[in-house]
Amino acid sequence: MPFPFSYVCDLLQRLEDNQRGARGVLRGNADLLREWFGAHCSQFLCRDDHDDAALLSTLLPEKRTDRIYLIREKKLQATVGRALGLGVSRIMELGRWSRPGSGVDLAECVEGVLKETPNPISPANQAVTVEEIDGLLHSIASACRFSSPAVRSSAAASSFIETRLTDRELALGNLYTRLSSRDAKWLTRLILKNFEPVVLDPQMVYHAYNPVLPVILKVQDDFVVAGRILASQRRDRTVVGRPNLAEYMKPTLGVKVGRQPWIKGRSIKHCLDMGHGRMSVEEKLDGEYCQIHIDLSKDRDCIQIFSKSGKDSTRDRAGLHGSIRESLQLGQPSCPLKKGCILEGELVVYSNKDEKILDFYKIRKHLSRSGTFIGTDQDSQTHHWEHLMIVYYDVLMIDDESLLAVKHSERFQRLKQLVTVVEGRSELVKRQAIDCDRPSARSDLRHAFAKCITSRGEGLVLKSDDPYFDFDSARRPYSCCAIKLKKEYVSHFGDIGDFAVVGARFDAAKSRFYSIPNLKWTHFFVGCLENKDEVVRFRRKPRFVVTNVVELNISQLETFVTFVNPIYVPAEENDAISLRIEPGIDDGKRPSFIFPVPPVFDLRCFSFDKAGNTGFWSPRFPMVNKIHCDRTYHDTLSFAELQDMAVKEKELPPPEDSQELLGWIAALENADPKSAAGHIASQSTASQLSERTMSTPATPSTIRSECGQSQVSPSLPISRGNVISHIRSHSAIVQGTFGGPLTPPRSSLIRPSITQANSPERATNRTTVTRGLKRPIESPTKTAPDRCKIRRCSNDPAMSVVVPLSQGEDTSPDSSSSQREPLLDVSVSSSRRNTVASSSAVPPRLCGSSSMYQLEHVRAPPPKATLHRAHTASISFSGVSTTLPSRPETSHHNYPHVKDRSRLDHPSSTAAAVAKLPSNNTVQGGRGGQRCRYLPETCTLSSYFFLLSPCIADYPWVTEDLLSCHGVTSYARHPKEWSSTTTTTTTITTTANDGNEEMALQTAISTENNNIDTRRKQKQKRKRKVVLVDSRRKEATAAFLKSTHAAQLKRRNGEREYVPVFDWRVLEALREEEERCGKTSTGISGEREREKERERAGRLAMGGGAKSLWKKFWVGLA
């Protein structure tokens, strides 16, 4: 029975209204899908004559990669205008989508036109059905040579009588005359294969449609074939469950099998957490995916190749057929196959001359796209020593025997028996096995990954010894998944440098995704200066080479529009800068606007590539790391520097020595989130880490935010001399040079590297950093740690190295360090501190980089005595709170030396030791509590009450470095704590035992009397509330702000309270500015001093106007 298209539009419109919150309450898409399918199940979906493929193709048009219409916005606009007979004024209204800032797409323009003059409704106009639209679109696609062979061959069997493409497009236009304005909007988006802002999750649609449909599409990834299976079940009245269906179904030759889920590994630890048991670690090749079907019943045409998208690419990859025939011995008596097989592999280009696999960009001149070679205008001609090669890595079926339920190790053994390796033509993927359950697994994987990086490989693929698919609903998480591990996924190894943003263009469909009013830009053209020396020295007209086009996420684009908002001119009026834009940039699209003074983006990428029709190296898959408001295009990479960086990355041979390998091993070890250096089999450090540390997610944003802290292994003997020498060498490296691109950060975990850093040979090899170049050119013989991209570390001399200490461990320091006793455990009434105190060890932390460091051994408190005291002051809450230990400015020798360690376990000894703490360890500021370390008289940061989102509340760099150096000794972790805030108090709590009540009471009274003036001053003025988040973690920030909204914060008068939200990196900017001002404020007198003071106050104040540092990090209001 035909399915009315208006019912599909009902669902899509409900989803769009729900996403915009038009009805007040947001609901999940899954609930709306289930309701919609349930409402139409009995009447349409369960009937024998229902066309499942047509409905699925309508709901998920982007999945029909086999259909190519060659219809975009401009062509569709002309078709609709002719069909509706629009005049000049209404055609202008229909084309409003192309004007930047309009905020509408073509679909909404069509809707607006039909709302003004609706189509007449008559009995002759039958309702448009899903089957009718699907048949018409299939007919249009069959006339396009870029469609799959199966679609093109079905043109003769089509039920439509139109024989010319123009007739089919005319029939498409006639559909608009029979639709309402709303339905015409969704038909427009269906033809363009883009329902944005509505985005449907395919798996969610499959589950709501039929519980067994996801299983069917895994085995046979084709809507038409899956529809036939569902129809046969309805016709035969058979109901098959998921486990039974897995046994019932098997792959079919000629129908693509779905791929395993692929997951990105963010660190060594992250990969091992997702894996289990024995894992296959395979080399990842930079080629094109191939699923090869061999059907011996078709004689010479027995080879069929599917691409990753599911398109039949057999003809385009004809150059690979010879290699496949040789490897499988097709047509020979020794062929191991009887009926056929299904294999997976990677297509690459091999050079007999160089005896190696060539770069990815070499593939396009050997492969056509539907008979056309695309992007090869500036490529060299094909050489006779270059040819296509296949690298096999899996087998899914052999002679009607499905191997989808067979473990990976067994499948690979079957693959080895099947394939004959031919040098330069075919081979098996290089692999090794690692047992995740062994203590040495982390070290083995780290070594394998470092070896892959130094050999200039793309990365690794990790596969557990699981079946290809597991259809059991109770399967283990991450089972049957392939884990991709590339160096660009780990920490900030993919950072390349700053690029100038020279122009932008507007895409109407993409603008609907952002939902930003009056948005003018969606795609940004970034490039490098071609005449950087002339511009810097002689102020010549800048000449830029556009290298890439990038997009921003929502928060980044809002920041760019709000705070950067550069001056722009139409492209035809630009005379300020010269642009060189090759034809291959952005598929020939050109910028609509040019920025005469280009802003600056910090980019990261996966690798370098020569894009089609460009002829130069450019970042591959670039992403914007940061938007710089304090840099100009003079500070960006030059075009020559970018090319040299890419050549070093792609073309230099691997080094013969092992120094780079050791450097990468150390860097990867340091990149593991919250990991100690000594993840060695003989050590138990990992088990001693606190729960908070081990549960930190391994995401790039968290790692990037914590890069200011190095980590020191408790298992390594650390002396004061070694620490100081390492810190001095680390500070010196900041003024050194960094070589090749995409290199690891300097590791602080390996003692040989510390010693080596102080050697005179290394000191003499350093050169000066070129301005704006993050990785200047240097000799490739230098080791990887020397070519690092240095991250900001704390320069505060009061920061310290914290070394974990287990219960039974000897606490005597190294003989080379000054003798001192361990400090008493300083704990507070916070969930975070309680977590740390309850574990057997505190995670190691290198908090800064200065010439002097303090080694503080933190010991767990005795069970019967709990001490709640910060070095300066503590803020108490009725709920959960957090108090930061303030850094003492006096020497550590001022602390009392407790000679009898056993007495520390006694409550009286604990209280007595606290009572003997010298008073000069507490810095009393004018506002009560600790004063700012840089501007003690004028810094107002301690007058703010900060609420930290969970993703940054556990960053010691934020809580113990940035906040404490400004005199901020407390913060909140949940908005409910704000409503229960009391005045500042300092509380000492001990267990009443052995007559200690009187002593504890006297101590508390004395402390309370000392803080009376402080409490009076804080009662006079209420602290201003400020929220700090990590704006790069978009989903986590949104969830946290929702909880802030739910807290219902109110002022004293009962009105709703709105709190400003900033990115936590404002603390770094304020710290740098205050430190600079503190150093340069002396020596200025009179009116000039007052002017400088006013200017400085404007930069540091939250409401200081356009020059305020706070404005650059504004996120919103909560």
TrEMBL record:
Alphabetical list of PROSITE patterns matching this protein: DNA_LIGASE_A3 (PS50160)
ATP-dependent DNA ligase family profile domain segment(s): 390-530
Pfam entry (one): DNA_ligase_A_N
Gene Ontology CC terms, in alphabetical order: DNA ligase IV complex
Biological processes annotated in GO: DNA recombination; double-strand break repair via nonhomologous end joining; nucleotide-excision repair, DNA gap filling
Record GO terms (molecular function): ATP binding; DNA binding; DNA ligase (ATP) activity
Keywords noted in UniProt: ATP-binding, Ligase, Nucleotide-binding, Nucleus
Skewed-composition ranges (Basic and acidic residues): 889-904, 1086-1098
Start-end of Low complexity biased regions: 826-842
Annotated region described as Disordered, given as residue ranges: 676-714, 739-844, 881-904, 1078-1099
Compositionally biased spans, kind Polar residues: 681-714, 753-770, 808-820
Official protein name in the record: ATP-dependent DNA ligase family profile domain-containing protein
Organism: Bombardia bombarda
